[in-house]
Amino acid sequence: MLSYRRSPIHIMVSVNAFIAASGIGAALIALWIEVRFPKLGPDRIAWGLFHLLCASIVAQMLVPVAIDAVWNKLLGVFLVAIPSLIYLFLTAIWIMKIARDALGGARGSGAGRR
Predict the structure, then answer these.
(1) Is 42 exposed, middle or buried, given 0-12, 13-18 or 19+ CB atoms closer than 10 A?
(2) What is the pTM of this model?
(3) Conformation bin of residue 112: beta by default, left when phi > 0, alpha when psi is -120 to 50
(4) 9-20 per-position pLDDT tens digit
């Protein structure tokens, strides 16, 4: 009886493609969270800016430390960097919603009709 062994398949991804895919994936997850839980975000601009400040601090201080840590770099990316990107994108969505509401934008499906 003959047995055939397959050689393992190695797929190489460039760093730029990985960063772009991570950013797009984080933005899509943030958009899904906003659509799925529309009442999750803050109602006032002060709380929106507070969330933006927190997300920026995490992205600027914690992400480089987690990625440069001794443990696995991919673990740092998936446990710290991508969640912080999701929080940053979600905060941006919340601030855009607060600005839309402050400027008198329409809520619901009748936007733009007269």
Answers:
(1) middle
(2) 0.75
(3) left
(4) 777 888 788 888
